[in-house]
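[User]
If only I could read backbone structure tokens as easily as an amino acid sequence. I have put the entry right below:
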Amino acid sequence: MGSTSAENTGNAGVGRRDLIKRSAALGLISVPTMSFLSACASGGGGDNNDNNSNQGKTSKSNPFGVEKGGKLDVVVFKGGYGDDYAKAWEANFKTKLGITSTHTGTQEITGKLQPRFNAGNPPDIVDDSGAQQIKIDVLYKNGQLLDLAPVLDAPSVDDPSKKVRDMIIPGTLDAGMQEGKIVALNYIYTVWGLWYSGKLFKEKGWEEPKTWADFIKVCQAAKKEGIGGLAHQGKYPYYINVAIMDLIAKTGGLDAMKAIDNLDPKAFVGSDAALAGVEAIYEVVEKGLLMPGTNGLTHTESQTRWNQYKAAFITCGSWLENEQLKQTPSDFDMKFMPMPLLPDSKLPFEAIRAGSGEPFIIPAKAKNLPGAKEFMRHMLSKEWSTLFAKEANSLTILKDGVDASVKLRPGTQSTVEASKAAGDNTFRYLYPEWYSEMDTAIQAASNELMSKRIQPKEWLKRCQAAVDKQAKDPASKKNHRD
């Protein structure tokens, strides 16, 4: 979701580039089974007796007392961003601090790590992303995550007179928050929205639509040419929710978004913005403007057909370009655009969903806590941020974190331009991180909607029921957006 996708993912995908990801992939599977939950609960949180045993003397340049010659167990989601960036970090870490890393790159995060968390033997640092992500809220509730405040309050590698948190783009830490504590570092700066081929649009004489009416017109023009209008990653309804939820936020403004995150009794049923947003997407379904077959495809299958010019648009986060490198024609000219506006929208066309994806966590029972904290501190240095950009073609949450010598690919460059155009007009939902069960229920409703098995008003009812169910959990009161 990476950030986020499924095999590759995201939040996604950021998959990756959930600017990312995945995101994103953020909520692409249901909450882990009860056997896992109970095992987590019995494992408990708190410190492992061994996890500070390798701490040496602390100093401003070594705030966590890392001792040379130690070992670090690193597990990275190998999705759209790959894992070469982490290997580059690990090599640099060994050169600087003499710490050797055990590296695991995988898409099977739950499969590989669930048994280790259950046994109280987790890795030291994890990129917990992708379709098989272990949900952050589940890990947190079972005491499995380290509070990252000591890392964020440590001196910055680049400027020791400032804290690490002072070097980060404002608002990007929010996605890793549970009950007021930052327990996951969403590292990649991601944007979400629509994507199209600059080459296809130029050939057909289509212009980037700024209104929903014009978006529908382009989709209709595409249909006449034998091209689908909108593709989406049907087996993973997280992606179509990018469009639905963006339309709700842009139509109703930040209040409409916060109503959902804050579990308002009128978050969906009784919300004019929610009704308008879901009806707009359903218009695409009713008018036959979806790419044929898209409802039954995985993310990579839909995205590959889009790369083959079988659809005009696709919804995704900014990991898309990296995820599709092998499938994208060299002259495709990938472009990102904000969600077009419905009438009387409170946010401008330039407004985009933007924030952070690809959550990195430090397990509470990590064996080498000093090393894990220092590794994360270095992740938030310009040197490591630039290493990431070179290897993964994506931006990080570090302010001005990429050296000017790094040349980004066309799609990622277009997200940079969109972010500049948006300015302060950015928004980001937090309910997928806070309430994974509710997120899964909303995705399930969207899957039914896109298959025409339910209508917009039934979608609203199902989403509101998921909100109301979550609101009954007393712990929900500990999460709130002002």
